[in-house]
Amino acid sequence: MLEWEVIIMGPADTLYEGGILKTRLTFPQEYPVLPPTMKFITPMWHPNIYPDGNLCISILHPPGDDQYGYEDAGERWLPVHTVESILVSVISLLSSDRPNLDSPANVDAAKEVRENWEGYKKKVRRLVRRSAEEAWD
């Protein structure tokens, strides 16, 4: 009940188009007071996704003020958020023309976005293609 497998279809007209992205959404006992966590099972290359697949996105950060000052309390988890609002935020993240590099979860991916955009796009497309192939195996 507290752990869901979620499949996200790569949004059209993005680097992730055609991808079949498997994730795990894990709800704490204190849900909806505390946010769930989301982890990509499909290998991903994105500045806001840790190398182990854990997603770093404001809507899933615990409620309250950000101790580092990157986010307003209103950008963080609120009990009114739903699975739908989480998924819309994730799809929006993947649809962005340029990833947010302000506080990257994956420093190497963020560095590649800054220094080698074409190389970054090539790596993402390769992973997306592999995700689609593995989904049909």
TrEMBL record:
InterPro entries: Ub_conjugating_enzyme, UBC, UBQ-conjugating_AS, UBQ-conjugating_enzyme/RWD. GO terms for molecular function: ATP binding; transferase activity. The keyword ATP-binding applies. Keywords: ATP-binding, Nucleotide-binding, Transferase, Ubl conjugation pathway. The active site is at C56. Residues 1-133 form the UBC core domain. Belongs to the ubiquitin-conjugating enzyme family. This is UBC core domain-containing protein. It comes from Serendipita vermifera MAFF 305830.
